Amino acid sequence: MTADATPDAIERRHAPEASAPWLFSRELDAALLVVPYLVALVAFVASGLSLSGGLPRAYAAWGSQFVLGNTTHVILTFLLLGARRDLLHAAPGQARTIIVGASLTWGVAFGSYYALDRYAPTLMDLFLAFVITLASHHTFSQSKGIWSLYAMRAPAPPSPSERTMQQRYVPVALILVMVRWLFVAAGPGKVFPFIGAVPGLEAPLPYAVTFVLAAAWGFFAVATVRAAAGDAPFYAQAKSRYVAASALAVLVMIVVPPWGSVIASGMHGIEYFLLTRRMLRPFPGEETPVGPRVVVPAMLVAIAPLLVVGMTTAPFSPRPGRLATLAMFAMNAVVLAHYFADAFTYRFRIPSVRKNALARLGFGPPLAPKG
To answer: C-alpha distances in angstroms, 262 versus 43, 55, 332, 336?
Structure first.
């Protein structure tokens, strides 16, 4: 088999604007990296350089969730699967698995939120810690996926060292961040962790452990960026710039969790919006009610209900009533259902799933129409 016959080479050959280094466009790739950091920086300055952030950080956190899309993007998974049925039916039984599994996940999640809030509120924090762990894994996995797409733009496959760092990226980031958030004192002079899984339980590790975790991630991040950059300076390539920005976001999540969560959430939401926009774009000649001109409007209409629900939790909103609380539970259940649906939509180890998804992303020839 020649090099050009390998799946990676075929995908690189069909990559959109294959001669260009960016993933979406020069401007969008730059915005993906700059906007979340800029939002956090402006809020940090407005807070008087406060590590906790106060009200400015609350506004920035809400904006990253509902404007930049870390929460509101979740409905786009189901819009995509409904509008592009080849993704839903990419493998035998996939549609049934996604529909039944996501529906059950939503039901169990909503029931858990409701039951814990009503009957066992002291266990809610433990459940939320579990959800945050899932959310962090989802965020880091998407970063790895974006990195892999950038790698497909290159004229040659990733080096063995780059593939090794890709495989290690998610578990290393997840372990270090979750140790910091769940088990280390939130800040200087604090006794409770950033995420308190058990109300009233002090952090078992002192704040000083933060610097050990940061140093460990720093060494790993430098090696990761060097592997992604190869022989070129990291700032000279879109791929390594993205890897560096993502690794820096993880570092901020470890050192200053309130601000790191703003940056990582903003990046994740923008990434998902751009990916969905790309995948909703119809193939040339494809007959579909969701044509090129209505892709973005359809996405905005889909996320509008979640934005309305999110308004009830905004810093400028009054304390939410019972109906608003139930709406929040329903929305958060959609978040968990979206994790399930995503996990099966992007099972790239299955050739047909990989083929369909990469074709929609533009990294492969258009799919032949059925019928």
So the answer is: 10, 13, 18, 20
